[in-house]
Design a protein that fits this description.
The chain has helices at residues 3-32, 61-74, 91-96, 113-123, 142-148, 171-192, 220-230, 251-276, 281-295, 297-315, 317-336, 341-363; strands at residues 48-54, 79-84, 103-106, 128-132, 137-138, 155-165, 203-207, 234-246. By secondary structure, the protein is an alpha/beta fold. The protein has a domain at 48-252: Spore Coat Polysaccharide Biosynthesis Protein SpsA, Chain A, CATH 3.90.550. The protein has an eight-stranded mixed β-sheet. α2 (61-74) links the parallel β1 (48-54) and β2 (79-84). α1 packs across α6, α10 (297-315) runs antiparallel to α11 and α11 crosses α12. The longest helix has 30 residues, at 3-32. The protein is globular. It starts with a helix and ends in a 14-residue tail after the last helix.
């Protein structure tokens, strides 16, 4: 075997390991780490404020408001605040009609979720701030179970568990559901061993005293939740705090969503970098494994594919041509397929491409501050 062949094999092997690292090797390492228990104590639950932002969510509002009414009935002291980001439909009117239930803050126009959440946090009075999304429904025990975790004074933030609905609606939804089940298990293991490294916006909370200052260009979910870790407190996940949301079924919607999230995530990483460097070794390892390596999965696919193609060329140009044709054929079939393994594989590749595009977009200096709800939920 020549030196070039060995180099190509090493590149291919390294690309495969890096691609599988967040989903195979990292979880195995987490399972081998010892448990860090919480010091749960009896006592009165802290006061809480539930916050969410909305833009053109009129279709989801009746169910959302009914869900909030149920939670308010169970927790009469729960403060609920909503920010309308310049909706052009009836979202603001529907929320305003429930003035006894929800305090509505109207934005001046499209200013973005991060800006809206900062406005809500500044007005909230609860000891604990609970963040959720306009299209997310919380189970009846979610608030009580979440607040109970704050009996441990070392706990500064608590994430819930997101359960997606509509898994069978399309291959995109099925892949999204599988990805999220893996993500939930990773968070469970991270929580068991110390800290979860970042939250998503469906359901998470922090002590109000830990709420940070940050620009509108970052992901508020990641920025706010990581402030708990930076403060030396624990960010944990509660399996019994359940939120439910419908999956995105359309490829176009999911692609645009992943580009937007990845671009904002990279800007968030740049904003948090000085504090990330001061984290403990275990938390830095978790962050790199679950965040950074995954953001560049598209690069690992490209480098691995090019290495494999180069090796095939060295064996036989005809073999390389046949392999490239077969890969292109599978991609074309996957783009047209609505279900099945080929469609699922195509959606995985599309997800990696969208994430890489978002990161490259952010690295070039561009960002996205506003969002639009997916039409295919």
């Amino acid at each position: 075997m020549s030196a070039l062949d060995l180099t190509l094999l090493l590149i291919l092997f390294a690309s495969i390991v890096a691609l599988l690292w967040p989903f195979l090797f990292y979880p195995l390492i987490l399972r081998a780490l010892p448990t860090k228990p919480e010091a749960l104590r009896a006592g009165a639950a802290p006061s809480a404020s539930l916050l969410f932002c909305a833009y053109n969510e009129a279709a989801a509002m009746p169910e959302k408001l009914a869900n909030l009414a149920m939670l308010k009935c169970l927790h009469p002291d729960l403060e609920i605040l909503a920010f309308d980001d310049g909706s052009s439909d009836e979202t603001a009117a529907l929320i305003a009609a429930e003035g006894d239930l929800v305090t509505l803050i109207r934005g001046p126009g499209r200013s973005g979720k991060a800006h809206g959440m900062k406005q809500l946090a500044a007005r909230a009075t609860g000891d604990v701030l609970i963040f959720t999304d306009a299209n997310v429904m919380l189970d009846e025990r979610a608030i009580g179970n979440l607040l109970a975790r704050y009996a441990d004074p070392q706990v500064g933030g608590v994430l819930g568990s997101l359960h997606y609905m509509g898994e069978g609606d399309s291959a995109t939804a099925s892949v999204g559901s599988l990805y999220w089940r893996i993500e939930e298990r990773l968070k469970d293991e991270e929580s068991r061993t110390g800290n979860v490294l970042g939250a998503d916006g469906s359901i998470f909370s922090i002590r109000r005293s830990l709420y940070p200052v940050f620009p509108d260009s970052v992901l508020d979910d990641l920025t706010v939740s990581m402030a708990v870790v930076f403060a030396g407190a624990r960010l944990v996940k509660a399996k019994d705090v359940i939120a439910r949301e419908r999956l995105v079924a359309g490829r176009g919607d999911e692609y645009r969503r992943k580009v937007r999230i990845a671009a904002r995530a990279w800007h968030t990483h740049q904003h948090l970098r000085p504090q990330l460097r001061r984290m403990g070794a275990l938390d830095r390892f978790k962050y790199a494994s679950r965040k950074i390596i995954r953001w560049f999965g598209g690069v690992f696919i490209l480098t691995g594919g090019l290495a494999a193609l180069s090796l095939a060329l060295r064996i036989s140009p005809l073999l390389a041509l046949a392999a490239a044709f077969f890969a292109l054929l599978l991609l074309m079939l996957g783009m047209r397929a609505k279900s099945g393994p080929i469609a699922a594989l195509t959606d995985i590749l599309i997800a990696y491409a969208a994430t890489l595009q978002g990161v490259m977009k952010a690295m070039s200096g561009r960002t996205v501050t506003i969002w639009n709800p997916a039409k295919s939920r």
